[in-house]
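Encode chain A's predicted structure.
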Amino acid sequence: MKNSLCTLAWMAANTIAAVVHAQATTTYENGADGVTYKVTKQVVQRSIPTTEYQSREQKLYRPQVRTEYQSYQQTHLTPVTQYYWVPRLRGRWNPFVMPYWAHELTPTTRWEARPTTVQIPVARTDWVEETRTTQVPVTTYRTVPEEYTSRVAVSASPSGAASTSVANRPIGSQQLQSDPPREPSPWSDRYNGVTNRR
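Encoded structure for chain A:
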C-alpha cells in the first residue's frame, strides 16, 4: 500500500514537471491553397515506465525438527534368585531304608527395587536461517520528449481561382426556380378556414 502511494505521488510529480517543462513555438506558414496557418509545436516531456526483474537476496527462516533423547530415572522391581543349601531328611517314611540327612540346593526368589535410566525421545523445533535469491520486479521511469503539432487557419480569404470566381458573380438578385411564389396560393385560405373570394 505504501509503495503504491509513493509510486502515484512520483508519477503525479513527473506529470506536473512535464507540463511545466513543455516548450511551445509558434510559426505562420502559407499553404498551397493560399491560406495562412498558425503552426504551434509543443514539446512535452513524458515519463515512460520500464519494468525489469532484478535478483534480490532474502533471508528466510524455515523450521527444522530434530529429535533428542532425554534421560529420566525410574525405579522398577527386579526378581533376584539365590540358591541355598537346605538339609533334608531322606527315608523317613521308608521302613526298609535307614533315614539319613542330605543337602539340596534350593532356589529362593525375592524382588528388589532398582533405579534405571530411561531414554525418552523429545522433538524440538529449530528455526534455521536460509538465504534465497528471488527475482523482484523493479519499475523505473525515463523521460522522453514528445512533439505535438497543431495547424489552425488564421486567414479565411484564399487567393487565386476561388477569389476570381467570387468577383465574377453578377451584381443583383436572380430568381431561381425554387423561390417561393409572390402571391399566396388559393388553397392556403381553405386550410386556414377562410373562403377565398375574388
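Confidence is low (pLDDT under 50) at residues 16-21, 158-168, 194-198.
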